[in-house]
Amino acid sequence: MKKGFVYFMMGVLLILSACGGGSNASSSSGDKQKVVIGYFPNLNHAPAMIAKEKQMYENQLGDDVEVEYRTFPDGSAFMTALATGEIQGGLVGPGPAMNNFISGVDVTVVASSSTGGTVIVSREDSGIKTVEDIKGKTFISPRVGCTHDVQFETYMKKLGITSDRTGGTMKHVTGKPAQYTTMFEKGDVDVATAPEPWASVLEAEVGANVVVDSDEISFGKTLPAAVFVTSSDMIKNDPELIQNLIDAHKESVEFINENPEEAIDITIKSIDEITGQKLDHDVMESAWARTDFVYDIDQEAIQAFGDSSYDLQFLKEKPDFTGFVDKSFINK
């Protein structure tokens, strides 16, 4: 975590304290309580899209609660919104959630959303066919130190190949996954650490080569690709609301596994509405095959991922995730 961001978050929290801000669900018109759910237009956030389409949160929370939805381009923006009380919970990558927890931000993981879905692909004319060919090339990830970045750099470091951030040969740039296709077409980047469905999009639209598949990448089988988070303040002050949110989330995950074709159609529609990109059903099926939707959490995988983030110098100190995960809501 860069110092500038840590100081920024500390400043935000101090301002909130002075203004009487907090992370409780906000008031809305009339007597209704308003709850805002955040998520990204990525496949591993499909449970939020399904829950929205099927009004699962609304049904669990009842008529006295107004549910709103907000989408984010990256984990940093999501975590800032959670810290400032703009959202009360939602889906985010484990990397941003871990980094903010270590920095002292009030965030608690209460469920997983999915595992898998991170794929390393290369531009068709890049000459990159194997991981050894990536040495000296330019790779892109959504953000520095994000979940997909850590997975990729962990994998590459085992081969003795590191990024320019730590004196290595790989040049690292960042960008939104929905824009990867354009960047590949322009030749701006050679390799993408792509969360699904964008890896399958790159394969279908620009002939990208799969260099490391989702079941081979570091932590690909065990690490949650997305987690449902809220604040300990929300858990303490309104545990019934959090239980209702997680019950809806579990219902959504179960729906996905029982109705994959309908879930794919809903996810295609939702991503189109958010990004303006309508994905082919065949592309989404390819992406779906690389993703497992689960709500249980592998705490050991989270610690191992955090240790690797420290080893890669994304973190200044070795992390301690005591109190980071609360499984009580998924176990009820």
From TrEMBL:
<feature type="domain" description="Solute-binding protein family 3/N-terminal">
    <location>
        <begin position="34"/>
        <end position="259"/>
    </location>
</feature>
<dbReference type="InterPro" id="IPR044527">
    <property type="entry name" value="NrtA/CpmA_ABC-bd_dom"/>
</dbReference>
<keyword id="KW-0564">Palmitate</keyword>
<dbReference type="InterPro" id="IPR010067">
    <property type="entry name" value="ABC_SsuA_sub-bd"/>
</dbReference>
<keyword id="KW-0732">Signal</keyword>
<keyword id="KW-0472">Membrane</keyword>
<keyword id="KW-0449">Lipoprotein</keyword>
<dbReference type="GO" id="GO:0005886">
    <property type="term" value="C:plasma membrane"/>
</dbReference>
<protein>
    <submittedName>
        <fullName>ABC transporter substrate-binding protein</fullName>
    </submittedName>
</protein>
<keyword id="KW-0997">Cell inner membrane</keyword>
<keyword id="KW-0813">Transport</keyword>
<dbReference type="InterPro" id="IPR001638">
    <property type="entry name" value="Solute-binding_3/MltF_N"/>
</dbReference>
<dbReference type="Pfam" id="PF13379">
    <property type="entry name" value="NMT1_2"/>
</dbReference>
<dbReference type="GO" id="GO:0042597">
    <property type="term" value="C:periplasmic space"/>
</dbReference>
<dbReference type="GO" id="GO:0042626">
    <property type="term" value="F:ATPase-coupled transmembrane transporter activity"/>
</dbReference>
<comment type="similarity">
    <text>Belongs to the bacterial solute-binding protein SsuA/TauA family.</text>
</comment>
<keyword id="KW-1003">Cell membrane</keyword>
<feature type="signal peptide">
    <location>
        <begin position="1"/>
        <end position="25"/>
    </location>
</feature>
